[in-house]
Amino acid sequence: MSARRSRPAATAPAAAGTALPAPRRAEAAAGEPGRGGAAGGREHRRDLLRRMLLVRRFEEKCAELYSGGEIRGFVHLYIGEEAVAAGVLAALAGEDNIVSTYREHGHALVRGLPLDCVMAEMLGKQTGCSRGRGGSMHLFDVSHRFYGGNAIVGGGLPLAIGIALADKMRGRQGVTACFFGDGAVAEGEFHECMNLAALWRLPVLFCCENNFYAMGTALERAQAQTDLALRAASYGMPAWPVDGMDVLAVEEAARGAAEAVRSGAGPHFLELRTYRFRAHSMYDPELYRDKAEVERWRARDPITLLADRLMGAGEIADTDVAADDQAAVRAVEAAAEAARAAPAEPVSDLTRYVYSERPA
Ligand SMILES: Cc1ncc(C[n+]2csc(CCOP(=O)(O)OP(=O)(O)O)c2C)c(N)n1
Ligand SMILES: [Mg+2]
């Protein structure tokens, strides 16, 4: 993974004799993330493990149901990236807003959307969180302040800053966390959103899930500056790269950044360096990366990393990990059964929810 680093334009020395103001330096990108400290003790850390296991088993079940034709459409699995959702969302509160991408099952589950509703949505059932009308890419639940699921690369960014602007204008407390991929950083709206968020000091926590690929295109083949935190810092906002395979590091960085955003310090940016272990969507031939690279990242599986760490510290035993894993498998199986048994929306309701409905 070559990380090409070039000098950011903002730090280039001003030409002699010009009276330009001191350049905004991108120093934040080179520093350490704000130290928010990991919350809680051993029970909290075990809970992080449980959440990641739930996401992993959910995703594996989705792959199975997709292969069997029970889930249709597009499905983008989050396997390998679980530490990002678990770590960031552990640092947020119920009053905070979440905006996500089409690779959002993990965000939804960790945020606390009921497992049954998420699974039913995958199968297009009426009991799904979007009444089966959205499917994998459009999980949505206002009661959890979970504003989607978005199939458009970078499409969540303007939504997030719109929500944050509304909060700010209304004097409402709350951080808006916006997840997006490295591919979104190449979109024009990314830069428009960085600019407005910084200019208006909006309460946004930008969470860039840098898994180093946008479909089959490696980051360095598509983007001139591959240090994504540095690019955000050029807008004058604090930004840091974070080891996205280490859930404790993610939580600590997210906690520090979210606290700063909450206290009115304006937007902050985390570049969470992670990796998807599976294909971009359900299947692709993966000709764009070699197996050795995948194996190197698999050796840092976020679930194994945390489990080993907790076992090494004597906080849990291998039987605890096995028990938590089994519990996750059972919960996912039960949700799949419930989703199978659930009804689809009746055809008579086909045109509902297209326009807003007048209350009766
Ligand atoms: C505006 C737009 N352009 C192109 C696509 C097609 N597309 C779907 S996913 C994807 C790759 C995005 O990669 P990234 O943002 O890194 O997210 P990842 O899939 O790696 O999580 C592309 C180009 C799209 N959905 N929306
Ligand atoms: Mg990507």
For CATH, the homologous superfamily is named as: Thiamin diphosphate (ThDP)-binding fold, Pyr/PP domains
Numbering strands along the chain, what is their spatial order in the largest sheet?
1-2-3-7-6
DSSP helix count?
Answer: 13
Low-pLDDT residue intervals, each spanning 5 or more residues: 1-34
| CATH topology title | Rossmann fold
Helix content: 40-55%
Shape annotation: globular
Number of strands: 7
- CATH class membership: Alpha Beta
What structural class do you assign from the helix and strand content? alpha/beta
Give every kind of bound small molecule, once each: thiamine diphosphate, magnesium ion
Q: What CATH architecture label applies?
A: 3-Layer(aba) Sandwich
Mind describing the biggest β-sheet?
A: 5 strands, parallel
Sequence of secondary-structure elements:
HHHEHHHEHEEEHHEHEHHH
Strand content: 5-15%
The whole-number mean of residue pLDDT values reads 90
- Using only C-alpha atoms, the radius of gyration works out to 21 Å
Keywords:
single chain; 360 residues; alpha/beta; Rossmann fold; two-stranded antiparallel sheet; binds thiamine diphosphate; binds magnesium ion
Mind explaining what this structure looks like?
Residues 1-34 have low confidence and may be disordered. Helix 2 packs across helix 3. The chain is globular and about 50 Å long. The strands form 2 sheets. Strands 1-2-3-7-6 form a 5-stranded parallel sheet, sandwiched between helices. It has 13 helices and 7 strands. Strand 4 (213-214) and strand 5 (217-218) form a beta hairpin. The longest helix is centred in the N-terminal third of the chain and has 26 residues, at 42-67. The chain has 360 residues and is α/β, with parallel strands linked by helices. It has a single domain, classed as Thiamin diphosphate (ThDP)-binding fold, Pyr/PP domains (Rossmann fold, 3-Layer(aba) Sandwich), CATH 3.40.50.970. It has helices at 27-30, 42-67, 82-90, 105-111, 115-122, 156-170, 188-199, 219-222, 228-233, 247-262, 291-298, 302-312, 318-341; strands at 97-99, 176-181, 204-210, 213-214, 217-218, 239-243, 268-273. It binds thiamine diphosphate and magnesium ion. The site of thiamine diphosphate has 14 residues, from strand 4.
